[in-house]
Amino acid sequence: METITPIGKERQQQVLEQTRHFIGLGSELLDRRFADVPVAFDLRGRTAGMYRVKGRQRLIRYNPWIFAKYFEDGLHVTVPHEVAHYLVDCVYGIRRVKPHGPEWRKIMDAFGVDGRATARFDLEGIPVRRERQFDYHCGCQPHRLGTRRHLKIQRGEARYLCRQCGNHLVVA
Asked: Which of the four, 4, 61, 88, 163, has the lowest number of CB atoms within 10 Å?
């Protein structure tokens, strides 16, 4: 298996230009000016892009390895996807709407991009972090949760329900 090399500065510049393009398009569509958002090419793992808000800091992160393997998809799907999250946050507030709710889908439709919440990529050759899995169960089947959800349950910050039976997940 050959390891993919992340995109270089030239392609990163193209991604930045495409990000600015969609922010400008959003400004026209929503009749409101949106500032450029900082962009980082530091995302790793299975996710092609991520819009993040930490305090008052807004940031779009892109995965340079996935962009190297799927550059055109990244430009035409991942970039507008993340910009739509940014625009929805600016207009409605990140906590007031669902991440891939009707407000986000409306912007994606206006961009002319398929509004699927996630993409499925073949990640062969792309370095991915292997997350530890924890065994849980409900009333009908076993479940495997990642570290983040497991820790939220352990700290009492979250409870998760089985989609099949509706019972709470309990550590096995």
From this structure: 163
